[in-house]
Amino acid sequence: MSMLSKIQTGVLHKAPRIIVYGPHGIGKTSLGAGAPNAILVPTEDGADEIGIPRFPLCRSFEDMMQALSELAYEEHEFSTVIVDSLDWAERLVWDYTCRQNNWASIEQPGFGKGYVEALKNWFDFIGMINEIRNRGVGIVMLAHAEVKRFDDPTTDGYDRYQPALHKAASAKLQEAADAVLFMSWKIVTAETKEGFGRKITKGKGSGSRLLFTEERPAALAKSRYRMPYKIELPNEPEGMWPELAQHIPFYTAA
Question: Does residue 192 lie in a domain region?
Fold first, then answer.
C-alpha cells in the first residue's frame, strides 16, 4: 500500500507522558494521585498514605517491567499510571544491568560504559511506557530534584534544578516525555530593616506550589502543550491535578 494513502490530517490528542520533579515532600505523589483512575507503580516506599490502587513495591527491574507490561497488554480499568519515582527506578536499572554483565557496580567497566549499557534497559522502559500510552492511558513519572551546575556554552555556567538522574538517562527520558515540569514552593520575599541601615531579605511561603513548564536558568523544564510559563497549584491536594489537566488537550478536548 502506498504511503501517500496513509497520510493523516487533523490534530490527534494522545494520552500524556509527563515527568514531574521537585524537592522531597512537596506533593508530587499527591499531584499524580489526583489523575483519573490512577494506579501507582512504586519503586520507593512512602506512598502508602496516598490511598490509591498500587502494585507491591518494585524491588527489581523485573518487578517494575512486569507491572508495566500488565498495564500495557492486559485488560484493566485504569486511566493513569504513576511511576514513583524515576530516580529509584534508576537504581533498579543499574542493578539489573550489573547482573546482566556480572559487574560488582555500574562503575566497574569505567569511562561511563556502565551507564551507556544501562541505557538499553531504559529504552525497554520507555518502550513499555509508550505501549501503555498507545492504549490511551496517561503516564505520570515522578522524580526528585537536585541542583547541578550547567555549563551553558552561550554564557557563564550556573546552578539549576534538574531531575536527580544520570545525565544520559535523564536526556532520553526527557526526549520521550511530552512535558517535564518542575514543582516548587511558591515563595514571596520581603525586605526587613534590622537597624544600622541593614536590610535582610526573608522568604515566606503559604503552602502553595508552582509548576514551571519552560526552561529557565533556575530549572530544567519543557512542554509540548500550550501551557503558561508557571502554573499555580492550590493548597488542597485534590485540586492540584485539575489545575494542571486544564492545560493538557487530551483532557480538555474530551
Answer: no
